[in-house]
C-alpha cells in the first residue's frame, strides 16, 4: 500500500486557507481587493466581534452573472489570468482565484451579486466549503455583497490564536487604511457592531495627498492632524510620489510608513531603507517617519507572485528604484518645509532664498521643553550667578510660527559664567547634587526628616563603586573634571586615560535605574495635568489603550474615554519624583504615543512584563538631559555623582555607550611621540 496519498478536497481547502486567511483582517483584505477589481466606487464593511462573528462587505461594482458566481467559489477560478505571461502584466489586486474558496472552507458564507444587465440578484449559501442550500434569485442592487459568519468555527485550533475583539478590529481598520491610501477615489466605510458606530469613513478625495491627510489624521504626535509634504521624482520605468511628515512625527516602529507598489501595500526592507536614508540625519537611528510612498513601476519590472498574502514583491531594477525614492525624498528634506511652517500644497521658496534665524522665541521654546534647574542664588553665594540662555536676550526676529523645536534644529548653546569664589563654587555644587539626587521614599518607621537646603554633600549617601564587566570601576565624581565638549560630552581624567561621558546617555541610565527600582514595588508616580490633553487615536491605538489600561496606569498615565476614539489624558508620569534633573514630561501626549508604539511592537499582554524595561527606558530617554544642554562644572559633577550611585552597565538602556576611554598611549601615538 503506498505511503503517499492524495488529500481530500476539504483538507486541501483548509490548508490553503491557512496560507491566505490568517485572521479576520485577511478576509477583509482579499474581499475588498475583489471589490476594487470589480470597479467599485463605494465599499461598506460591517463587522461584529472583531470580524470573527461577522464580516459583511458590500460594493457597487460590476457584479457577476449566476454562472460566474458559481465558478468564483471554486479554487483557482479567476477572470484575471489567461496565461503564464499575464502574471507579469498584472493590473489587478487579485489574480490567484483562491480567496473565496479558502474563506468559504473555514466559515459560513453567503454571496449575493447582481450584474448591471440582470433583473434580479443571485444568492449562494455555503458552509465549510459545501453548499448549504440551493442557489436562488433574490432582490438586490447592482454589485456584490458577501457575508462571512463564524470564521474558523470548524478550525478550533486556529480560533484559539485569535486576539481580543479590540485588537482584531484594529487590524481590520489598518487593512482598510492601506487600501484607502492606494485608491483615493473610492469611498470606504467601516462599521462595528451597531451600525451607528462608524470606525472609519473616508469619502472620495480628488488627490492622493488629500486622502493621505484624511486617512492619517490621527497618526500625528502633536495636536491636530499632521501636515504632509509632497515629494515627487521619476526614473526610467519608475514614478515616485511620497507624502512626508516632518521628522518630529517619527516613531520607533515603521507602522506609519506605507509602501504602495502599483497600488499594492507591501513590506520591503530596501524601500523602507530608501525612505529613511532619504531623511538622512533628520531621523535618529531606529526611528521611522510618517510617510506614504506611491511607487508606480513598469509591469515588467515587478513580480507580485512571491508571497501567499501578496505582501512582498520582487523588483527587477531594485538599485534604480532605491535611488529614485531616496532622491525624491531627500530633495524635500533638504528644503525642510516644516521649519518654515509651509502649509501643504503651498509653494516653497528656493533653498538659496531662505534664512534660518535662530530667534529668541526658538531659544525660549527649547529651554521650556528641557529639564529646568533652580538657578536662584544660594544664601552662601557672594555673587548671584547669571545662568541664562545665550539667545534669551537676543533681538533677532522669530522665524518659526510654532513653539515646537524641529528635531534637526541647531543645538542650543548656553553660556555660564565661571565661579567667582570658593564659597560660590561649593554652594552651586550642593545645589546641583540635589538636582540629580533621588527623592527619598518616606520611611514607615516615623515621619521623614525635613530636607534642608543647606545639607552638606558629606551627608549624602556615599557613591557605590560600579563594576564594568566584572572589573572595578571608577568613582566618576572623584576624578578631575576637565570640562564639557560640544555641550554634549563631559571630560574627566583618570590616571593615564581621558574619559569621555555622554551626558544624555549617562542621565538616561540614572533615570532608568531609578524608574526600574520604583516600578518593581508600585506604580510610577504621576501628576495630574491642569488641563486634560485630548487625543484622537486611530482604531488600532484606541484598542491598545483599552487593552493595556492597567499597565499604562502602572506607568503613570491616566486616561478616560471622551468620545469615540478620543481619550482624555488626565495625568502623566512625574519623572521629577526620581531625580530633580527631570520633571513631568513637557509633551505628555508625545510620550504616551511613543509608549503606545512600544506596546504595539511587543503586542501581547503575556509578554508585556518582559518589555516593561523598554517602556521605562523610553520614558527615561524623553526626560533626560539632552545633547546640546550646556552644563557648568557643578551640574556636571552632580551628574557624575548620580552615575556613581546606580548599578550601571557601560551602556544606556537603548544600547549606546555611556563613556569612552582614550588612553595616553593612543594620544601620544597620534602626535608621533611613541
Structure description:
Mean pLDDT is 75; it is low at 342-422, 432-436, 439-472, 580-584 and 604-611. Helix 2 runs parallel beside helix 6, helix 13 crosses helix 18 (612-623) and helix 16 (588-602) packs antiparallel against helix 18. The strands form seven sheets. The chain has an eight-stranded mixed beta sheet. Strands 9-10-13-11-12 form a five-stranded mixed beta sheet. A four-stranded antiparallel beta sheet has the order 20-21-22-26. It contains 20 helices and 26 strands.
Topology:
Elements: H1 9-20, H2 24-37, E1 42-48, E2 54-59, H3 66-72, H4 99-104, E3 108-114, E4 121-127, E5 130-138, E6 143-149, H5 156-159, H6 165-182, E7 187-192, E8 198-202, H7 208-215, E9 229-235, E10 238-244, E11 257-261, E12 264-266, H8 269-279, E13 291-297, E14 302-303, E15 314-315, H9 318-335, H10 337-340, H11 360-369, E16 388-389, E17 414-415, H12 422-436, E18 467-468, E19 471-472, E20 481-485, E21 489-494, E22 497-502, H13 503-521, E23 526-536, H14 539-547, H15 549-554, E24 558-563, E25 566-573, H16 588-602, H17 605-608, H18 612-623, H19 633-644, E26 659-663, H20 664-670
Parallel strand pairs: 1-7, 11-13
Antiparallel strand pairs: 1-2, 2-6, 3-4, 3-6, 4-5, 7-8, 9-10, 10-13, 11-12, 14-15, 16-17, 18-19, 20-21, 21-22, 22-26, 23-25, 24-25
Amino acid at each position: 500500500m503506498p505511503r503517499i496519498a492524495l488529500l481530500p478536497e476539504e483538507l486541501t481547502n483548509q490548508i490553503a486557507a491557512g496560507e491566505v486567511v490568517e485572521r479576520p483582517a485577511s478576509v477583509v483584505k482579499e474581499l475588498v481587493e475583489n471589490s476594487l477589481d470589480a470597479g467599485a466606487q463605494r465599499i461598506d464593511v460591517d463587522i461584529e466581534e472583531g470580524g470573527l462573528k461577522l464580516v459583511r462587505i458590500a460594493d457597487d461594482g460590476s457584479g457577476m452573472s449566476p454562472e460566474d458566481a458559481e465558478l468564483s467559489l471554486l479554487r483557482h477560478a479567476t477572470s484575471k489570468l489567461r496565461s503564464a505571461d499575464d502574471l507579469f502584466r498584472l493590473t489587478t489586486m487579485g489574480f490567484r482565484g483562491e480567496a473565496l474558496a479558502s474563506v468559504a472552507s473555514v466559515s459560513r458564507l453567503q454571496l449575493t451579486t447582481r450584474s448591471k444587465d440582470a433583473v434580479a440578484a443571485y444568492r449562494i449559501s455555503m458552509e465549510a466549503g459545501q453548499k448549504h442550500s440551493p442557489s436562488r434569485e433574490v432582490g438586490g442592487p447592482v454589485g456584490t455583497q458577501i457575508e462571512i459568519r463564524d470564521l474558523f468555527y470548524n478550525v478550533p485550533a486556529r480560533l484559539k490564536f485569535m486576539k481580543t475583539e479590540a485588537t482584531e478590529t484594529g487590524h481590520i481598520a489598518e487593512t482598510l487604511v492601506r487600501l484607502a491610501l492606494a485608491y483615493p477615489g473610492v469611498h470606504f466605510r467601516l462599521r462595528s457592531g451597531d451600525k451607528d458606530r462608524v470606525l472609519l469613513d473616508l469619502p472620495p478625495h480628488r488627490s492622493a495627498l488629500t486622502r493621505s491627510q484624511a486617512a492619517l489624521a490621527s497618526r500625528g504626535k502633536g495636536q491636530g492632524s499632521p501636515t504632509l509634504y509632497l515629494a515627487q521624482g521619476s526614473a526610467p520605468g519608475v514614478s515616485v510620489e511620497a507624502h512626508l511628515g516632518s521628522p518630529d512625527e517619527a516613531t520607533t516602529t515603521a507602522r506609519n510608513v506605507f509602501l504602495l507598489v502599483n497600488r499594492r501595500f507591501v513590506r520591503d526592507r530596501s524601500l523602507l531603507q530608501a525612505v529613511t536614508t532619504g531623511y538622512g540625519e533628520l531621523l535618529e537611528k531606529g526611528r521611522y517617519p510618517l510617510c506614504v510612498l506611491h511607487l508606480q513601476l513598469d509591469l515588467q519590472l515587478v513580480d507580485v507572485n512571491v508571497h501567499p498574502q501578496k505582501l512582498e514583491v520582487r523588483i527587477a531594477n531594485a538599485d534604480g528604484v532605491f535611488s529614485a525614492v531616496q532622491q525624491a525624498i531627500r530633495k524635500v528634506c533638504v528644503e525642510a518645509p516644516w521649519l518654515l511652517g509651509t502649509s501643504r500644497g503651498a509653494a516653497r521658496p528656493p533653498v538659496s532664498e531662505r534664512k534660518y534665524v535662530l530667534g529668541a522665541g526658538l531659544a525660549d521654546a527649547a529651554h521650556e521643553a528641557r529639564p529646568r534647574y533652580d538657578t536662584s542664588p544660594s544664601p552662601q553665594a557672594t555673587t548671584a550667578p547669571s545662568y541664562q540662555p545665550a539667545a534669551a536676550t537676543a533681538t533677532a526676529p522669530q522665524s518659526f510660527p510654532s513653539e515646537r523645536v524641529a528635531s534637526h534644529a541647531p543645538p542650543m548653546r548656553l553660556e555660564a559664567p565661571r565661579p567667582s569664589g570658593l564659597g560660590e563654587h561649593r554652594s552651586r555644587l550642593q545645589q546641583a547634587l540635589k538636582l540629580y539626587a533621588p527623592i527619598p521614599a518616606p520611611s514607615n518607621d516615623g515621619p521623614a526628616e525635613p530636607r534642608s537646603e543647606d545639607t552638606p554633600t558629606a551627608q549624602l549617601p556615599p557613591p557605590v563603586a560600579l563594576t564594568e564587566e566584572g572589573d572595578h570601576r571608577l568613582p566618576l565624581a572623584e576624578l578631575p573634571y576637565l570640562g564639557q565638549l560640544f555641550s554634549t560630552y563631559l571630560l574627566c581624567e583618570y590616571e593615564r586615560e581621558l574619559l569621555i561621558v555622554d551626558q544624555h546617555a549617562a542621565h538616561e541610565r540614572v533615570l532608568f535605574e531609578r524608574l526600574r527600582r520604583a516600578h518593581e514595588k508600585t506604580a510610577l508616580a504621576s501628576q495630574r495635568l491642569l488641563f486634560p490633553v485630548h487625543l484622537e487615536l486611530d482604531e488600532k491605538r484606541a484598542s491598545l489603550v483599552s487593552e493595556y489600561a492597567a499597565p499604562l496606569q502602572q506607568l503613570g498615565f491616566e486616561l478616560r474615554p471622551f468620545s469615540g476614539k478620543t481619550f482624555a489624558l488626565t495625568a502623566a508620569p512625574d519623572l521629577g519624583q526620581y531625580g530633580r534633573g527631570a520633571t513631568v514630561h513637557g509633551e505628555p501626549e508625545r510620550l504616551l504615543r511613543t509608549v503606545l508604539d512600544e506596546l504595539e511592537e511587543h503586542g501581547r499582554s503575556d509578554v508585556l512584563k518582559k518589555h516593561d524595561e523598554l517602556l521605562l527606558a523610553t520614558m527615561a530617554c524623553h526626560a533626560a538631559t539632552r545633547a546640546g544642554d550646556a552644563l557648568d562644572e557643578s551640574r556636571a559633577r552632580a551628574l557624575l555623582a548620580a552615575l556613581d550611585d546606580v548599578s550601571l552597565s557601560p551602556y544606556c538602556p537603548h544600547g549606546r555607550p555611556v563613556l569612552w576611554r582614550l588612553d595616553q598611549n593612543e594620544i601620544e601615538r597620534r602626535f608621533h611621540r611613541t
